[in-house]
Design brief:
This protein has 164 residues and is an alpha+beta fold. The protein has one domain: Alpha-Beta Complex (Nucleoside Triphosphate Pyrophosphohydrolase), CATH 3.90.79. GO terms for molecular function: isopentenyl-diphosphate delta-isomerase activity.
Length: 164
C-alpha cells in the first residue's frame, strides 16, 4: 500500500510504500469518534494479529491516508470496511500533530449514532470487538489500566468534549 507523505503544513509532497517508507517521513491519518445519544463512546479493540498495538482499545475507526485519498474519503472507506457503516455524514473535528515514535497529522471526524445502535459488521482482520463506554467508566479504566488503550484515546479523553 502506498501512503501519502506530507510536509509540515500537511500538504502532500509524495507517496511511499507504507512498509518501506522513510521513518522520518510525515504521513496523515483520519479518525472517527463515534458517540450515541446517551453520550457513550464507541471504541474498537484492535485485532490480536495487528502488527502495532494488538488487542488495545482505540478509536472506533481510523486509517492511514493512501495515495489518491483525502481525509474524508479515507474515513468513509474505513467506517465501511471496519464497522460496516454506510451513508454516514461525520462532522469535521480537530486536526492534531503527533511527534513521537510515529510522525503524522490526524484529522478527527465526529459521528453521533442513535441510542441502541449496534448494527456493526466487524472486520475481523482489523477489529476484534467494539463496545460502548460511558465517559466516567472509560476515564476510570484509562487511569487504572492505561496500557489497555492507544495513546490517541488517552490524549483525547484528557479534554473530553466532542462538541469541538
Amino acid at each position: 500500500m502506498r501512503i501519502s507523505i506530507v510536509n509540515e503544513q500537511d500538504e502532500i509532497i509524495g507517496h511511499e510504500d507504507r512498509n518501506d517508507r522513510n521513518l522520518d517521513a510525515i504521513y496523515h491519518v483520519s479518525s472517527l469518534w463515534i458517540t450515541n445519544g446517551k453520550g457513550e463512546i464507541l471504541l474498537a479493540r484492535r485485532a490480536l494479529d495487528k502488527s502495532h498495538d494488538p488487542g488495545k482499545w482505540g478509536l472506533a475507526v481510523a486509517g492511514t491516508i493512501e495515495e489518491g485519498e483525502t481525509y474524508e474519503s479515507n474515513i468513509l472507506k474505513e467506517a465501511k470496511e471496519e464497522l460496516g457503516l454506510k451513508n454516514i455524514h461525520p462532522r469535521l473535528g480537530t486536526k492534531t500533530r503527533s511527534n513521537g515514535k510515529w510522525n503524522y497529522f490526524t484529522q478527527e471526524f465526529l459521528l453521533t449514532l442513535p441510542d441502541g445502535f449496534n448494527d456493526f459488521k466487524i472486520a475481523g482482520q482489523e477489529v476484534a470487538e467494539v463496545k460502548w463506554f460511558e465517559v466516567g467508566e472509560l476515564k476510570k479504566m484509562i487511569k487504572e489500566n492505561p496500557d489497555m488503550f492507544l495513546n490517541g484515546v488517552k490524549r483525547r479523553m484528557e479534554n473530553y468534549d466532542f462538541k469541538s
